[in-house]
Write a structure and sequence with these properties.
This protein is an alpha+beta fold. Helix content is about 65%, strand content about 10%. The protein folds into 2 domains: about 220 residues, no CATH class; about 160 residues, Reverse transcriptase/Diguanylate cyclase domain (Alpha-Beta Plaits), CATH 3.30.70.270.
Length: about 400
């Protein structure tokens, strides 16, 4: 295997979604994952605050009964560990919207969390430390942000191994036993106590991983079902492809019965992948929303407002579709009129800016009955015209009727 193929394979495995040309559902899943990562980061801030309060109050209570120098020695390394948490959580806070779909970084923050908890476990009593329960929180976080079940179990396995290293390392003398107030030191040397205690920890952490993966799988399945049953695209607020197909089929049948005309426009954003790479997926989503609002506004302005309907939908990814009813077209398809409407939409798109950056679109146009006698025929004709417009460099309009001449 060539070095290039190895690099591409590693890149694919590093990403939550690695498709070179992601579908609409890929993009939505990636954005949803970024939002989940952001929630985990906010939860971590809350945990750090809780640990800081606990450390302050607990340190004050211990300071009443043990020498200050012993207390400082016990708390020095945990304090460094918490400072490390502050550092990497600050990094993730600043970068997660751009880097939240890089799987290795999501794994890394959970591994860091587990390592910090391991430090706290060691310096707070080892086998009888209270802090081991915090592993459960990070297993829940793993189920929330990692894409596969075995990833969550891998985090759970790492937590068990790290905790086991402290518990059994202390028992076998591989680690120096840390003296903690109010805890009998000979418990470290009692095999029955250490075994039963660790067995309970294994049971709780494995149970947490089981419940977390099952619940998260059910939630994600339910989210997918809700997306599938809706006719509204979540990102843009437009009708989705399935609804547009049903409406176009119905309108084509009515046009055949009543002798009317309808028009179909397919619009594809030029080089949208490049826009996303330059400015990020979140900004790309904001642009899609702004374009959807602008195209809907312009499309509704064609024709009379008292009859017919002009519908804009998200066709998929960076593609949109517009259905023009008879009130916009008149009784027949005039090429000049169709081109004028398509050019108006194209110019409207070009005028939209998100932080002084925008895009252009290629537009393919087809009309019933001139370009097709069914919904499928119209879409095929519009798609061929769209390919022609894109092939001419983009930011162009192509009419199916002109291609057939």
């Amino acid at each position: 295997m060539s070095p290039t193929r190895w690099v591409r394979r590693l890149q694919r495995r590093a990403m939550v979604s690695w498709r070179e040309q992601p579908t609409r559902y890929d993009i939505e899943a990636m954005q949803a994952n970024i939002e989940r990562v952001g929630l985990v980061i906010r939860v971590r801030w809350a945990l750090v605050a809780a640990l800081a309060i606990f450390s302050f109050l607990g340190g004050w209570a211990y300071a009443l009964v043990i020498p200050a120098e012993d207390l400082a020695k016990n708390m020095a390394i945990p304090a460094v560990a918490l400072a490390f948490v502050l550092a990497y959580n600050t990094f993730y806070q600043k970068t997660y919207r751009r880097l939240g779909n890089i799987a290795v970084l999501n794994h890394a923050q959970l591994l860091f969390d587990s390592l910090v908890v391991t430090v706290l476990v060691y310096y707070s009593g080892g086998a009888h430390s209270w802090f081991w329960a915090m592993y459960s929180l990070f297993i829940l976080e793993a189920a929330f942000i990692l894409p596969k079940r075995w990833h969550t179990w891998a985090i759970a396995g790492f937590a068990l191994a790290a905790n086991g290293f402290v518990v059994w390392g202390s028992y076998f003398g591989l680690l120096q036993q840390i003296s903690v107030p109010f805890i009998t030191s000979d418990l470290h040397d009692n095999l029955t106590f250490v075994f039963v205690r660790y067995l309970w920890q294994v049971t709780v952490l494995c149970g947490t991983a089981t419940v977390a993966t099952l619940m998260t799988a059910a939630l994600r399945q339910r989210e997918a079902q809700l997306r599938g049953s809706s006719v509204i695209d979540e990102k843009t607020g437009l009708y989705d492809r399935a609804y547009f197909l049903r409406l176009l089929t119905a309108e084509t049948s009515r046009a055949q019965r009543d002798g009317r005309s309808i028009g179909v426009l397919l619009l594809d954003i030029d080089d949208f992948d490049r826009y996303n790479r330059m400015f990020g997926i979140e900004r790309g989503d904001r642009l899609l929303k702004a374009l959807a609002n602008r195209m809907t506004e312009v499309a509704r302005g064609f024709g009379r407002s008292d009859s017919g309907v002009n519908i804009t939908c998200r066709w998929g990814g960076e593609e949109f579709a517009v259905l023009f009813a008879e009130n916009a077209l008149g009784s027949n398809c005039a090429a000049d009129e169709l081109r004028s409407m398509a050019d108006t939409l194209r110019e409207a798109v070009a005028s939209v800016r998100i932080e002084d950056a925008g895009v252009t679109v290629s537009v393919g146009v087809a009309c019933y009955p001139a370009d097709g006698s069914s919904a499928d025929d119209l879409l095929t004709a519009a798609d061929e015209a769209l390919l022609d417009a894109a092939g001419r460099g983009g930011n162009a309009v192509s009419l199916a009727s002109e291609l057939s001449d």
